[in-house]
Amino acid sequence: MKRRGFTLIEVIVAMCLLGMVSVFTCTTLSMTVSEFNKIRCRNEMNYIGEMVIEKLKTEDAYVKEVLEKVDELGQTNFVDEGFDSDKYIVTIFKDYGSNKLLEISVKILHNYQEKEPIYVDFKAAIPR
What we know:
The protein is of the alpha+beta class. It is 48% helix and 25% strand. The chain has a domain at 42-127. The chain is built from two helices and four strands. It is rod-shaped and about 95 Å long.
């Protein structure tokens, strides 16, 4: 008598093995997507930081007002239409100031709750 097909035990073992492989694959894929999102977020924050530093070097009226607040208070938040202010918090800190230069730090923080916050720091010297 020739045997055709698979026995019930063989099918159950195959389904268990397939289930275990798919669980490990899904967790790995999930971690990879999470890391990709962090990298994408950091790249966006780098772009925003460079944009803020370049804007602070211009002679715009709003920029002058922001720099005066930084010089007086030591820090201030920066809001601009060039980035999503609900998603990112941009804070400018005064590091050191002389008569001709104002040394500042720009800190960009991603505005969502996670175990470790994602942020990027930039430093610049801006002529007064």
